[in-house]
Write a structure and sequence with these properties.
Layout (H helix, E strand, L loop, with lengths): L9 H4 L3 H26 L38 E2 L6 E2 L45 E2 L5 H7 L2 E7 L4 H20 L8 E7 L4 H6 L7 E6 L6
Parallel strand pairs: 3-5, 4-5
Antiparallel strand pairs: 1-2, 4-6
Length: 226
């Protein structure tokens, strides 16, 4: 059995000055690269960027939220904006507009304006307001029609000679006007405010057991008993 090995040329196995120089240069280059990478890894740097919003002041970002409240008004929906850390809260209440809409996205009432009442009227305070007729006047011939037509009908049984009824009238009519604008009876009609003059509709007031003025009754689909 014969074993044949290929012989490596002598010039590849013997040391030379050029080979030693190349080896030293390669080793130094590797050490330099390793040192640079290590230095870059251990270094701590801080960068800051300033971005200027170039959009004009009249440009707005419109965001539509599809929120459904089957039994609540849109006044209970709010939008809060905060940064990624949740520490910087932005007040965008002035740019949020709320409308009641139906299933076809058609507005069913006027725009809702949230806010507190500026002047709270106490029980014994004199009210100086302009009388604005906003409530429905009910009589015997149309009383049952109205209280059955709307989900909630709030009726004020009053007498014109009653001083407490006279004090209540401006606030009652103003509240009725606001509700009529917010929940249009022809479109939405979830609630209306009405009134009955018991000096002219005595039988109607006796039928509803009115014993004092003013008396306010809440009718739900024609019944004031829950």
């Amino acid at each position: 059995m014969t074993c044949v090995n290929r012989k490596i040329p002598r010039d590849l196995t013997e040391a030379s000055l050029s080979g030693a120089g190349l080896s030293i240069i390669a080793a130094l280059a590797m050490m330099f690269l390793f040192g640079m990478e290590l230095s870059n890894y251990l270094a701590v740097s801080t960068s800051t960027a300033v971005i200027v919003d170039k959009s004009s002041d009249g440009d707005y970002l419109r965001i539509d939220f599809n929120i459904s409240f089957p039994a609540l008004s849109c006044e209970f929906a709010s939008v809060d904006v905060s940064d990624v850390l949740g520490t910087n809260r932005l007040n965008i209440t002035k740019t949020v507009r709320k409308f009641s809409i139906d299933s076809n996205l058609r507005p069913t009432g006027a725009e809702f304006h949230s806010g507190t009442v500026s002047n709270a009227v106490k029980h014994d305070d004199e009210v100086d307001e302009e009388s604005v007729e906003g409530s429905f006047s009910l009589a015997t011939h149309n009383f049952d029609k109205y209280v059955h037509q709307f989900p909630i009908t709030v009726v004020n049984f009053y007498a014109p000679w009653c001083s407490w009824c006279q004090r209540l009238k401006p606030s009652w009519e103003k509240a009725a006007k606001i509700l009529k604008e917010r929940y249009d009876p022809e479109i939405d009609g979830r609630i209306i405010l009405a009134k009955v003059d018991c000096t002219q509709e005595g039988d109607l007031c006796r039928r509803n057991h009115i014993q004092g003025y003013p008396s306010i009754r809440i009718f739900r689909k024609g019944s004031d008993v829950r």
